[in-house]
Design brief:
about 270 residues; alpha/beta; TIM Barrel; 8 strands; about 10% strand
Length: about 270
Amino acid sequence: MPTQQEKADRFRALHQQDHAFIIPNPWDVGTARLLAGLGFEALASTSAGYAFSLGRRDGAVGRDQMMLHLAELVSATDLPVSADLENGFGDDPQEAALTISRAAAAGMVGGSIEDSTGRPGDPIYPQALAVERIRAAVAAARALPWAFTLTARAENHLHGRPDLKDTIARLQAYQEAGADVLYAPGLKTAQDIAAVVSSVDRPVNVLAGLQGMDLTLEALSRLGVKRVSIGGSLARAAFGAMLRAGREMRDHGSFGFTQSAVSHADISAMFPA
């Protein structure tokens, strides 16, 4: 089993390649092991996927329970794991710092802090406060004895504020605050993504899997993107298959969904005895 420092170094090196890599988002031990078995080099948690697996909405899982979940993901494989840490579980910058420290203690080698408040009526923190929160998170990361990769997220486009100029200004401010990776989920066009990449000098993460965003890994790599995550899309795909199967049984009394199901033998072969 590699040490946390070894995994942290591996994770940091993935961002220095001359091409983008995919970091898929499992939501439990089983899905983490399936993705590791497929050869992915790193994993990231998904707050939405985990919440859905508990029968809750995204954002409804508290910090203590999330940390237990993150520790389970780390124990599932030998891969580096980065955490979706939402807004750091509190408005105060020191709450973001505490969340980084606790995520590292749970075994994470990276994590993201977003500038979304979680309040529908006022969804995005003022930039000055958002920068303070990133600066505090960076300080907590730098206090660790190994290189924790801190990702700063600008959430405008996920909350009905498609203001690219403001998004870029925020990402530049987060870069100045010390963030290692920059991320504006919700960007969909090559033009917008290229504008972000050219405006900063940190690795950029792009969220794939959103409706209306059909750029491939190769296309994103050509734009200068370094990391591609998919958020809750894998979880939604799995839950979508479950819903389609349930509706088929309920509405038609048939079981055609079983024809496309993975075999018991194949899935068992991907898990340890």
